[in-house]
Amino acid sequence: MSMSIPPRDDSALPSTALGDEDALKRAFLTEYSTLSVDARAGLGDAAASLAPKVVEGAFVRAWDARAQLKTPEELHQFLVDDVHHAAARALSRRAAAHRFGGSAPHEGSHATSGELDPDQSWAHIQHALHGEEHRPDTLAAVAAASRHEAAGHIGAVGKSKSVWMALALGAAAIVVVVVGMLALERLAAKGKVAKAVNSSDARQITTPAGRAGNVDLTDGSTAHMAPESKLMIPKDFSATLRGVKLEGAATFDVAKGLEKPFEVYARNSVVVATGTSFTVSAYPSDSTMTIVVGEGSVNVRHGDVSQAVAAGAGLVMRDDGNSHVASAAERDEAAGWKTGTLAFENRSLKDALVLMKRWYGYEIRVPSPALLDRKVTMRVSLDSGMQAIHLIEKSSGLEFGYAGQNMVYREPGSAKK
After folding, report:
1. Most distant CA atoms of the chain, gap in Å
2. What distances in angstroms separate CA 95 from CA 101, 167, 230, 354, one per listed residue?
3. What are the phi and psi torsion angles at 326 (to 5°)?
4. What CA–CA distances, in Å, run from 383 to 157, 184, 284, 378, 388?
5. Using an 8 Å Cβ cutoff, are 79 and 32 in contact?
6. What whole-number distance in Å separates Cα of residue 394 and Cα of residue 398?
7. Exposed, middle or buried by CB within 10 Å (0-12, 13-18, 19+), for 72?
8. What distance, in Å, lies between the first and last C-alpha atoms of the chain?
């Protein structure tokens, strides 16, 4: 899409781009009207109501990236680029919402016409700077009915010629029976949960690219889902059947004080926890599952082998059961998103582009397949999509640009050939 940029008065911008919030407000008053026109042009009539939100986000992200914005010209270009990409991302999210059968992303308190209200927009920006900056969208709470289970009974031991012999044999028999029943009960419980999470009537919650969400479970636990994730919740999920299945990534804050443990089935393993907080990252495209424990401890079960993972530690589990203790970089990559950070170390550009689509909704192409093997390392705020784009440029040695309407990474100078 092309955006027309009306003339602007550069002299009205501060001589130093964003030295303080007063400078940000001066830039806002100067640029707001022009950027709103650009946003509405990029969004089109059907999504014009999102224009104020797109523009507000650009100023918040400019504040986050202020250390890199040395001149008014750099600030202006950052804002124009960010509005351009945010408008494209907003359209993508609306399309995704319709494909998933949901509604378009929440548009806040803006009028449906998307009319400009600078005072309201500045108030929203102030709230973003000083309020909850990384609050994810909230998904609908999951409803599930609780179910009562009947208890089994052990029959009485019959009479015998010797009362004492009968008592001794009876006691031994009871021990054997009880131990056997407990073992069978544990096996049955495992099988019951595994069957429930894989049942066709399990409730399925999904998050599209670029959108995270919260799911409140009926036992008091909460699942904080990352983008492009799927959570399967049994129809009979309750305090006595506490299991879910995950494809993607989520952080679980598990309710305490319940008899049954909380289980997460992912790939070929099961994470078993009582009251605790932990993150599981197990995307279908990955070759491993990573578990990071924030509070308490969990047991990671693969077949008959179980490994304990304590608070502050992590475990990387392969599908074949081999595992290793997660490094700091692996823990950061798996769980950093919960604090609003996207981090990865020495990953291929191909992997980095998957993460850009997942977390920012950016579909970035690479004309030359050989470039996909370039290594990328970066750490960036999830609220700074443009900063992420530029950090990949810097780390990979490539140049970001456009080929028609498509975002691309290419060799520096290749666009001129």
Report:
1. 110
2. 10, 73, 19, 19
3. -70, 135
4. 69, 50, 25, 14, 9
5. no
6. 7
7. buried
8. 23
Nearest to 30 by CA among 13, 15, 7, 18: 13
Q: What SS3 class is residue 269?
A: strand
Only one residue has tokens 């995270």, namely: 212
| Architecture field, domain 340-416 | 3-Layer(bab) Sandwich (3.55)
CA dihedral 320, 321, 323, 326 (to 10 degrees): 90
User: Cβ of 232: how many Cβ atoms within 10 Å?
Assistant: 19
> Under 8 Å CB-to-CB from 230, ≥6 apart: which residues?
204, 205, 206, 207, 246, 247, 248
More confident call, 9 vs 349: 349
CATH number of 135-338: 2.60.120.1440
Mean pLDDT computed over every residue of the chain: 79
Question: Roughly what angle, to the nearest 10 degrees, separates helices 118-130 and 21-43?
Answer: 120
Nearest Cα neighbor of 270 from 301, 308, 233, 309 is 301
Residue type at position 406:
N
Which of 40-46's residues contact partners 24+ apart within 8 Å by CB, and which partners?
Answer: 40/114, 41/1, 41/3, 41/4, 42/1, 42/3, 42/83, 42/84, 42/87, 42/88, 42/91, 43/87, 43/90, 43/91, 43/114, 44/91
Domain 135-338 and domain 340-416, same fold? Reply is no
DSSP state of 254: P
Residues 381, 389 contacting (CB under 8 angstroms): no
**Is residue 133 very low, low, confident or very high in pLDDT (cuts 50, 70, 90)?**
very low
Contacts by residues 411-415 (CB-CB < 8 Å, ≥ 24 positions apart): 411/368, 411/371
State pLDDT tens for residues 264-276. Answer: 999 989 999 988 9
Question: What residue spans define the domains of the chain?
Answer: 10-130, 135-338, 340-416
Nearest-angstrom CA–CA distance, 391 and 380: 8
- C-alpha 216: how far from chain center: 15
